[in-house]
Amino acid sequence: MKLTIGSLILLGVVKSLQFHPIRVHDVSRSDVLKGFLASSAVIAFPQQSVAYQGVYGMEIVTAKDAVLDDEAMGSKEVKTALTNFRKMYSSVKELKQSVASNDQYDVTAVIRKDFDPTFVRDTFNNLNPAFDKDTQKGTDRLQRAIIQDLLEVETAGKLSSGKPRSEKKIALVTDKLNKLEEGFGKLDAYFASASS
């Protein structure tokens, strides 16, 4: 049984209470303060070590170590999804070039047209069978990040009617597009050995 720091402190306080009955006139201010600090630690950090292992200790398969299922890669669904994914990746690159040449380019219209959330999710869901379960942990994380980045690009790219995009807004849109392109690139790396 693993014990957290907080539970060890509480256990120590409880044991001390079990073996030494407290009488009201025997309790000093320092004893009360120690008890308060111990209980505060338990409340503030109840499962710190367990959370650390669950989030940061999880092993993720990198793109170079990805395990592709050849049978799944040959299926029509995965081939179609991979083609759609690479079209979306190309669209991100084109969008980035369009914004570089025209900083007032309507980013939101392209995101809504080329990256419908249902289409993106369906594409990602159809790509998943290409990998083993351990590899899917890494690809799933990237897929969720891409979906989030698409929402952020759409939000950052909105134009106010009659007002040009400010320098600050242009920098934000460019930054979000760079992040989105990087996410697509990382996910595409998992398919490096796959033929398109």
Care to give the gist of this entry?
The protein has 196 residues and is an all-alpha fold. It has nine helices and no strands.
The Cα radius of gyration reads 26 Å
Shape: flat
* Number of continuous helical runs: 9
The helix fraction, in percent, is 55-70%
How much strand content do the residues show? under 5%
Which structural class do the helices and strands define?
Answer: mainly alpha
Low-confidence regions: 46-57
For the largest beta-sheet, the strand count, sense and barrel status come to: none
H and E string: HHHHHHHHH
What separation lies between the terminal Cα atoms? 50 Å
Tell me the total number of β-strands. Answer: 0
What does the average pLDDT come to? 79
Please supply descriptive tags for the structure shown above.
196 residues; mainly alpha; flat
Structural notes for this entry:
- With about 200 residues, this protein is an all-alpha fold.
- The chain has helices at about 5-20, 30-45, 50-55, 70-75, 75-100, 105-115, 115-125, 135-155, 165-190.
- Helix 1 (about 5-20) packs antiparallel against helix 2 and helix 5 (about 75-100) packs across helix 7.
- It is flat.
Topology:
Layout: H1 5-19, H2 29-44, H3 48-56, H4 70-73, H5 76-101, H6 107-114, H7 117-127, H8 133-156, H9 167-189
Helix pairs in contact: 1-2, 5-7, 5-9, 6-8, 8-9
